[in-house]
Automatic annotation (TrEMBL), chain A:
<dbReference type="InterPro" id="IPR017071">
    <property type="entry name" value="TF_Spt5_eukaryote"/>
</dbReference>
<feature type="region of interest" description="Disordered">
    <location>
        <begin position="803"/>
        <end position="920"/>
    </location>
</feature>
<dbReference type="Pfam" id="PF23291">
    <property type="entry name" value="KOW4_SPT5"/>
</dbReference>
<dbReference type="Pfam" id="PF23284">
    <property type="entry name" value="KOW2_Spt5"/>
</dbReference>
<dbReference type="GO" id="GO:0006357">
    <property type="term" value="P:regulation of transcription by RNA polymerase II"/>
</dbReference>
<dbReference type="Pfam" id="PF23038">
    <property type="entry name" value="KOW6_SPT51-2"/>
</dbReference>
<feature type="domain" description="NusG-like N-terminal">
    <location>
        <begin position="185"/>
        <end position="270"/>
    </location>
</feature>
<dbReference type="GO" id="GO:0005840">
    <property type="term" value="C:ribosome"/>
</dbReference>
<keyword id="KW-0804">Transcription</keyword>
TrEMBL record, chain B:
<dbReference type="Pfam" id="PF00575">
    <property type="entry name" value="S1"/>
</dbReference>
<dbReference type="GO" id="GO:0031369">
    <property type="term" value="F:translation initiation factor binding"/>
</dbReference>
<dbReference type="InterPro" id="IPR005576">
    <property type="entry name" value="Rpb7-like_N"/>
</dbReference>
<keyword id="KW-0240">DNA-directed RNA polymerase</keyword>
<dbReference type="InterPro" id="IPR045113">
    <property type="entry name" value="Rpb7-like"/>
</dbReference>
<keyword id="KW-0804">Transcription</keyword>
<dbReference type="GO" id="GO:0016779">
    <property type="term" value="F:nucleotidyltransferase activity"/>
</dbReference>
<dbReference type="GO" id="GO:0006367">
    <property type="term" value="P:transcription initiation at RNA polymerase II promoter"/>
</dbReference>
<protein>
    <recommendedName>
        <fullName>DNA-directed RNA polymerase subunit</fullName>
    </recommendedName>
</protein>
């Protein structure tokens, strides 16, 4: 084997090394030679010493090795002095490996890792090898003998040297220090391997090294406590890679260097001092009880065993079966739930229960099948290794269970010491109220004065004690008194605030500020605070009280946020359904501004106050927080559950202050309810409408009834001025100006009302409101013009001469209202600035004289005095319109729907409100009827239909209460029981011809009469007192109760 | 506890109310604005008893509103810790009951109700002693002691106890 060639191989075909053992051997020789040159003399001699010892071992393992040895010997021979040194160097590489690691490892490995083919082979071979060695040994010895002198010298050298060095090592500390790894030493590399195969991998590496000593690794280490990794000692990462190549179970993709500093730690044994004392809480690590909380009852340090108290998980039935030898089903999947042992129950199942006295403690235990029970708990002796003592966070539930069979609070304190081990740093701060929980000073209260590491100086509250006491932190616990306002700073309720309701040992019961629920927390987890929060209010992108869409397309409102999940009140109106939802289960937040209709077809939008009129939450009332898919989420402050949220169908609700069903005869009777809050005139305008056409057409109109601050809260766009193009939310309406909170900027600006368009928002149920603001403006007048041509034929149509006579009183009322109106306007004191915005609408009307002087431009009615009141009174005077009263006639329904049509002729109408011109005009007419019918609409002695949860019954109003509700005697004859009914729950019985009636509104309010005829929506009434015949709106007529 | 104190407030008045009745309007608006409100410092303003003086009005640019500094005397109600109050029960649930003493809402937790009183659910949830002699339900009047207060900008919320001598039901509507 020419050496020259070998060297070439080494350089050019490094890969071959692994696959060609013979060649490899040679190469190792070469390398060793090179290496040796680098080594210091002393070290090499050491190695050599070892190597000679190893020679034998290496030979044992492999024939090849022996051959190699022979070769080596030959080299040594031939090469003379240098060669012998070379030779001595060669062995160390194998020696290093084996004497440090392999010897030990292989022993273990052989026993444990059976089944690993490579290894077993070797193991199996070993005995033979043993024989083989003896066979081979002689020749070696012979060879050695050839150079007896040399050997002699070497042995002498070896022993002499070793003696010396050993002595050295043992004596000096500095040398010990010098053993620590330095930059010059091989490094430790961490290599990933298959879990559970650590030892196997290490053994394989060893084997590989033995097979091919040209590997440049020095050791392989598998640690018992480190899964998934082994350590390999080598000079370079490439060497490790090389070594790992071709091995299974080892993943050499990522090789990490262990910093020099940490290298010693890898192999240092960490003695874990487990301190287990009685009464500490532990968790089981294995078995059926894995993860269960247990309490240490007794500790046997000598035998490393502890007695723990557990809540048994025993399937009595299975146990009984087993004892009786019946079908012993080994069903592993099922773990019985923890349950206290009931001895009587066990006896019933014919399980033998022995009552024994424990000789050590003197306590009595019930023994079943070698299991000991006491008070329902299982007492179990386990190895210390099978319990974990670190980071035990018993939850309240668990602790609660352990307290079950009437344990006194003593135990709690002891257990707290376990809890305290997990305290954060800086737990106590100066000024904290604390109580001592252990030792002689137990139950002494005080305030923290100073905090040092582990020691807290407290000022005791008791007299005759030193000013400050130094107490170990672990003996202290925070102390609170009922009534303290606190914030929870750790634990599951982290972030919540509330007031302490009760102090129970070291457990506080606090009343959460937001949920008004009781929370149980450890005194240690809270701090005194004046802050008010509901705890965590955010989870991911979602906030408390957000409406969210969930995974399964259901939706709900977040009513509680916990650390990793939140509670969601689902949108199921039938019953309150709360789901615990993880963040990832939330799809998105629903932030739509929708509006829906309530049971009377009123529009409900967010923030409207509604009352639930049917269903399980009937009677609840509150502002609407969210609307989605016809479901409302109402926030009722008085509702304790679900953070005050109620989920209802929109149809089961009624807008408070909203108008009654739009088609109802006394449809606006309810909107009058509103007058309590709004300037009385506005709601009246819709009164005209029920007279007329199909009610549904006027949904929009009636809504105006409660539009006192209709614009407020809506989203508008500014059309003119400096803020042109901005969008914003109206925060306030003041006269002719509107304060708008800009969406894009954090500010509120005041703009002219005319400069906004509010049709950007879908939510504006008050779309007609701006009209009021513009009321006095001219555009309205021209807009009226097209109306008239349309109306005129109508008037021609259904005119009846009889009406002429009837006109006068109407007209009177039409004009008079201005007197009654003025006080009404004073109702600005309402306190609602928003309502002021609406008031200008009266201005156009109030100076009627002015409109008289200014004939409507472009109007065909040259002589028609000011558009507004023309219909009311004037037409009668103008000759051509003798039949002017027709708007009050049955024909009107035809006319009414046309009103919106007329708008199409008004391209220039400001704001583009479709309704504006037509309805506006009609609004102006409203005073014809209105103004003086303030006050209760219902009157005593009239017949009403009471709608109560779906059923209708007739009743007689006996008394009208101040709040608008009535006391009604049920039964048409007034014979039933008397109940109090809200105005919205009843409607006036429509009188028929020849019925006795009572007039509920107008100047004749309160008068009785007889309905002698019905003409559309007008009734012809013969008033009892005066015997006059009047034409009155049917809406203000009610059937008189027969008494 | 009730106090009679003098407070000051800047009132803004719409120009349309200027005239002979300006003062009346101002006072009316003041009452409307102030009565029934709550401030953390003073508690609930129960009633305005008089006007000390009305300062000079200042016209605000832009709006035309005029602001008047008004000093007024008023009766305020502020609950204190340790105070004993009489209150009307408004709601009873398993966690305790809510009672109102005028504008103040007080919660009495079941932990602060004597232990011999048990919660009875049903149509009319209540707390009853084991012998049934004492019953706390909606509209009962109770005497309680405030043990903690929480003052918000607009609300004062209290926690009370009836677990003490001479506390508890003083007038039961059921027995009347």
């Amino acid at each position: 084997m020419p050496r020259q060639r070998d060297e070439d191989d080494d350089e050019m075909e490094p890969e071959e090394e692994e696959y060609d053992p013979d060649q490899g051997l040679d190469e190792v020789d070469d390398e060793d030679e090179e290496e040796e040159e680098e080594r210091a003399g002393r070290r090499s001699s050491q190695k050599r010493r070892r190597s000679s010892f190893i020679d034998d071992v290496a030979e044992e393992d492999d024939d090849e090795e022996e051959e190699e040895d022979d070769d080596d010997e030959e080299y040594a021979y031939r090469g003379g002095g240098a060669g012998s040194r070379k030779r001595s160097k060669k062995k160390p590489s194998g020696a290093d490996f084996l004497d440090l690691e392999a010897v030990v490892d292989s022993d273990e490995e052989e026993e444990e890792d059976e089944g690993e083919d490579d290894f077993i082979d070797t193991g199996a071979d070993l005995p033979e090898e043993g024989g083989g060695r003896r066979m081979h040994r002689p020749p070696l010895m012979e060879q050695e003998q050839e150079d007896v002198e040399d050997l002699e010298r070497r042995i002498q050298q070896r022993y002499a040297r070793s003696h010396h060095t050993e002595y050295d090592e043992e004596t000096t500390d500095v040398d010990q220090q010098a053993l620590l790894p330095s930059v010059l030493d091989p490094k430790l590399w961490m290599v990933k391997c298959a879990i559970g195969k650590e030892r196997e991998v290490a053994a394989c590496l060893m084997q590989k090294y033995i097979d091919k000593p040209d590997l440049n690794i020095r050791s392989a280490i598998a640690l018992d406590h480190l899964k998934n990794y082994i350590y390999v000692e080598a000079e370079k990462e490439a060497h490790v890679r090389e070594a790992c190549k071709g091995l299974r179970n080892i993943f050499a993709q990522k090789i990490m260097l262990v910093p020099i500093r940490e290298m010693t730690d890898v192999l240092s044994v960490e003695s874990k001092a487990i301190e287990i004392s009685r009464d500490t809480w532990v968790r089981m690590k294995i078995g059926v009880y894995k993860g269960d909380l247990a309490k240490v009852v007794d500790v046997d340090n000598v035998r490393q065993r502890v007695t723990v108290k557990l809540i048994p998980r025993i399937d009595l039935q299975a146990l009984a079966n087993k004892l009786e030898g019946r079908e012993v089903v080994k069903k592993k999947a099922f773990v019985p739930p923890p349950r206290f042992m009931n001895i009587d129950e066990a006896r019933e199942l014919h399980i033998r229960v022995e009552r024994k006295r424990d000789p050590m403690t003197g306590d009595y235990f019930e023994n079943i099948e070698k299991m000991m029970f006491k008070d329902g708990f299982l007492y179990k002796i386990v190895s210390m290794k099978s319990i974990s003592t670190q980071n035990i966070h018993p939850t309240f539930d668990e602790l609660e269970k352990f307290r079950k069979p009437g344990e006194n609070g003593e135990g709690d304190i002891a257990s707290l010491s376990t809890l305290f081990s997990n305290r954060k740093k800086g737990h106590f701060v100066k000024g904290d109220a604390v109580i001592i929980i252990k030792g002689d000073l137990k139950n002494l209260k005080g305030r923290v004065e100073k905090v040092e590491e582990g020691t807290v100086h407290i000022r005791p509250e008791m007299k005759d004690l030193p000013k400050t006491l130094a107490i170990n932190e672990k003996e202290l616990c925070k102390y609170f008194e009922p009534g303290n306002h606190v914030k929870v700073v750790s634990g599951t309720q982290e972030g919540a605030t509330g007031m302490v309701v009760k102090v129970d040992q070291h457990v506080l019961i606090i009343l959460s500020d937001t949920t008004k629920e009781h929370l149980r927390v450890f005194a240690d987890d809270v701090v005194e605070s004046s802050e008010v929060t509901s705890g965590i209010t955010r989870i991911g992108d979602y906030e408390l009280h957000d409406l969210v869409l969930l995974d399964n397309n259901s939706f709900g409102v977040i009513i509680r946020v916990e650390t990793e999940a939140c509670q969601v009140l689902k949108g199921v109106p039938e019953r309150p359904e709360v789901a615990l939802v993880k963040l990832r289960e939330i799809k998105c937040k629903i932030d739509k501004k929708l509006s829906v209709q309530d049971c009377f077809k009123n529009t409900v939008s967010v923030k409207d106050v509604v009352r639930v009129v049917e269903g399980p939450s009937k009677g609840k009332q509150g502002p609407v927080e969210h609307i989605y898919r016809g479901v409302l989420f109402i926030y009722d402050r008085h509702h304790i559950e679900h953070a005050g949220f109620i989920c209802v169908k929109s149809h089961s609700c009624r807008v408070v202050g909203g108008s009654r069903a739009n088609g109802d005869r006394n449809g606006d009777s309810y909107s009058r309810f509103d007058h309590l809050r709004t300037p009385p005139l506005i709601p009246q305008s819709p009164r005209r409408f029920p007279r007329g056409g199909p009610p549904t057409n006027f949904g929009g109109r009636n809504r105006g009834g409660r539009g006192h601050d209709g614009l407020v809260g809506t989203t508008v766009k500014i059309r003119q001025g400096a803020y042109k193009g901005y969008r914003g939310r109206v925060v306030e309406v003041k006269g002719n100006s509107v304060r708008v909170e800009l969406e894009s900027q954090m500010k509120v600006v005041t703009v002219d009302r005319n400069c906004i368009s509010d049709n950007v928002a879908i939510t504006t149920p008050y779309r007609d409101t701006p009209r009021y603001g513009m009321g006095s403006e001219t555009p309205i007048h021209p807009s009226r013009t097209p109306l008239h041509p349309y109306m005129t034929p109508m008037r021609d149509a259904g005119a009846t001469p009889i009406h002429d006579g009837m006109r006068t009183p109407m007209r009177d009322r039409a004009w008079n209202p201005y007197a009654p109106m003025s006080p009404a306007r004073d109702s600005w004191e309402d306190g609602n600035p928003g309502s002021w915005g609406a008031s200008p609408q009266y201005q156009p009307g109030s100076p009627p004289s002015r409109t008289y002087e200014a004939p409507t431009p472009g109007s065909g009615w040259a002589n028609t005095p000011g558009g507004n009141y023309s219909e009311a009174g004037t037409p009668r005077d103008s000759t051509g319109y003798a039949n002017a009263p027709s708007p009050y006639l049955p024909s009107t329904p035809g006319g009414q729907p046309m009103t919106p049509n007329s708008t199409s002729y008004l391209p220039g109408t400001p704001g583009g409100q479709p309704m504006t011109p037509g309805t506006g005009g009609l609004d102006m007419m409203s005073p014809v009827i209105g103004g003086d019918n303030e006050g209760p609409w219902f009157m005593p002695d009239i017949l009403v239909n009471v709608r109560n949860s779906g059923e209708e019954s007739t009743g007689i109003v006996r008394e009208v209460l101040l709040d608008g509700s009535c006391r009604v005697t049920l039964g048409s004859g007034g014979s039933g029981e008397t109940v109090t009914v809200l105005p919205n729950e009843m409607e006036v019985v429509v009188p028929r011809k020849n019925d006795k009636i009572k007039i509920m509104g107008g100047s004749l309010r309160g008068a009785t009469g007889k309905l002698i005829g019905v003409d559309g929506t007008d009734g012809i009434v013969k008033v009892d007192d005066t015997l006059d015949v009047k034409i009155l709106d049917l809406a203000i007529l009610s059937k008189l109760a027969q008494s | 506890m009730f106090f009679h104190i003098v407070l000051e407030r800047n009132m803004q008045l719409h120009p349309r109310h200027f005239g002979r009745n300006l003062r009346e309007n101002l006072v009316a608006k003041l009452m409307k604005d102030v009565e029934g409100t709550c401030s953390g410092q003073h508690g609930f303003v129960v009633a305005i008893t008089g006007i000390e003086n009305i300062g000079k009005g200042l016209i605000r640019d832009g709006t035309g509103f005029v602001s008047f500094p008004v000093k007024y005397q008023c009766v305020v109600f502020r609950p204190f810790k340790g105070e004993i109050l009489e209150a009307v029960v408004t709601m009873v649930n398993k966690m305790g009951f809510f009672a109102e003493a005028g504008p103040v809402q007080i919660f009495v937790s079941n932990h602060l109700i004597p232990d011999d009183m048990e919660f009875q659910s049903g149509d009319m949830p209540n707390y009853t002693t084991s012998d049934g002699s004492v019953k706390i339900q909606k509209d009962s009047e109770v005497r309680l002691k405030i043990i903690g207060t929480r003052v918000d900008a607009t609300e004062i919320f209290c926690i009370g106890t009836i677990k003490d001598d001479f506390l508890g039901v003083i007038n039961d509507p059921a027995s009347v």
